[in-house]
Design brief:
With 430 residues, the chain is an alpha/beta fold. Helix content is 27%, strand content 25%. About 1% of the residues have low confidence. The structure holds flavin-adenine dinucleotide (FAD).
């Protein structure tokens, strides 16, 4: 009789709960602890921000679905994890004991690291649906009173795809509103070159994204460090290859959306042995924490080293496909431990991403993440937009049905002709 607790019911946590439940015996139980009882599909937030989706379109109430699947839900959220005691302190002062814990708490958004950054300051965010709704009000104001736009990702960010996506989606929305001619757009990023994406590029992402930006009249500044944001002005330092200041920019804006740096959430931040100095869960190749071997980490919450040296800090993205592979490996490994066996499953951590432009888009597959790669592929076209809508519909249906099967393996990989990419590597018994 084992109790498995999944902390966080986002993209990783929800499918983790479903997949774990399927692997457990009738006497074992799964509890999910989340902040609230609603699942929200983060990849659709850029569409919420331009009014192409409403919150209800991308939200799922987990209460009844979990109850149907026999999964307990604690919507109070966690105040602190106490891994030495195998328990979690919840926000209502109660405690929840566990035999195995899977941490899937996603990112804490580090807006406070740059003065004036974020929705409490002067820039918008699309990382959470609440912020995406606020961004939508700001986009509506921009359409009424057009002016310059700055979109991008700050130093230390680890999520560049959505910044590009949002720039192109906003371009499409402004063209449809017939005001694009009055909106000069600049893309400011800490990446060393356009299309780096935290992965040192994938296939031809550099040319594809530069060319898309030229076609859509979006100027760019790379190696850009945001120093501070004042109302209507973003102060940037452009650095050279050694990271030394090269040029100072004061970019005026009527609207700005900048992806912040991420760090681990407060409930785990600073726990010795569990997390790194940024608060991300330290894991081995089996997704397992070395200091607390009954604790696993998946999704954006885990620590992954950067792919190489860059003038400014540029983090590796953790995308849906990678997260699915982390979930599959974790479920397999916890099931092995419950059967008295050693964990042997290793997630492939391949990066597969669809970046939507609103009418077309680019897709890329990096296998493995760090170059040189076996698969280093990128492509563009209208099919990407169609596939992205398909991804949204399929994933939300999967969450509503309480199913654990994987979207990418079933759909996108067939389209790309790359089957079984997610196949787990099972190491031989020692
Ligand atoms: C704007 C945006 C667009 C993206 N688009 C794509 C895309 O198109 N394709 C792709 O593959 N990837 C995309 N990603 C990357 C990634 O897939 C998503 O960020 C994904 O949501 C990460 O899943 P996760 O489970 O790690 O974290 P999340 O989905 O963020 O879930 C974390 C969960 O933990 C909960 N939580 C946090 N703290 C606590 C606490 N103390 N107690 C209890 N619960 C807590 C939160 O409430 C949340 O429910 C995108 C990311 C962003 C930010």
């Amino acid at each position: 009789m084992s109790h498995i607790v999944v902390l966080g019911a986002g993209l990783g946590g929800v499918i983790m709960a479903y997949e774990m439940k399927e692997k457990l015996g009738p006497d074992d139980s799964v509890t999910v602890v989340n902040l609230g009882s609603t699942y929200s599909f983060v990849p659709s937030n850029p569409w919420v921000a331009v009014g192409w989706r409403d919150r209800e379109d991308i939200s799922v109430d987990l209460g009844t679905i979990f109850a149907r699947r026999g999964i307990a839900l604690r919507p109070e959220g966690a105040r602190r994890v106490h891994p030495a005691d195998n328990r979690i302190e919840l926000n209502d002062d109660s405690f929840l004991d566990y035999d195995y814990l899977v941490i899937a708490t996603g990112p804490d958004l580090a807006f406070d690291e740059i003065p004036g950054l974020g929705p409490a300051g002067h820039t918008q965010s699309i990382c959470q649906v609440d912020d995406a709704e606020k961004a939508r009000t700001a986009v509506e104001a921009l359409v009424r009173q057009p002016g310059p736009v700055v979109v991008g990702a700050v130093q230390g960010a680890s999520c560049y795809g959505p910044a590009y996506e949002f720039a192109f989606i906003l371009d499409t929305a402004l063209r449809r509103a017939k005001v694009r001619d009055r909106v000069p757009m600049t893309f400011a990023t800490s990446e060393p070159y356009i299309g780096h994406l935290g992965l040192d590029g994938v296939g031809d992402t550099k040319s594809l994204l530069e060319s898309a930006m030229r076609e859509r009249h979006i100027k760019w500044i790379t190696n850009a460090k945001v120093d501070r944001v004042e109302p209507g002005t973003m102060h940037l330092t452009e650095v050279d290859e050694a990271g030394s200041p090269k040029a100072a920019h004061a970019l005026p804006f009527a609207f700005s959306m900048m992806l912040p740096a991420f760090r681990g959430v407060k409930a785990i931040h600073g726990i010795d042995g569990l997390v790194n100095p940024r608060g991300f869960v330290v894991i081995d190749k089996h997704q397992r924490n070395p200091a607390y071997p009954n604790v696993f980490g998946i999704g954006v919450a885990v620590a992954i080293p950067p792919v190489g040296k860059t003038p400014l800090p540029v983090g590796v993205p953790k995308t849906g496909f990678m997260i699915e592979s982390m979930v599959a490996a974790t479920a397999e490994n916890i099931a092995a431990l419950l059967h008295g066996e050693a964990p042997r499953a290793v997630a492939t951590w391949n990066a597969v991403c669809l970046a939507d432009f609103g009418d077309e888009g680019i897709a890329f597959v990096a296998q493995p993440q760090i170059p040189p790669r076996n698969v280093n592929w990128s492509s563009s076209g209208r099919w990407v937009h169609t596939a992205k809508v398909g991804f949204e519909k399929y994933f939300l249906r999967k969450v509503r049905q309480g199913k654990a099967d994987t979207f990418y393996e079933n759909l996108v990989l067939d389209m790309l002709g790359i089957r079984k990419l997610k196949e787990l590597r099972i190491e031989p018994d020692e």
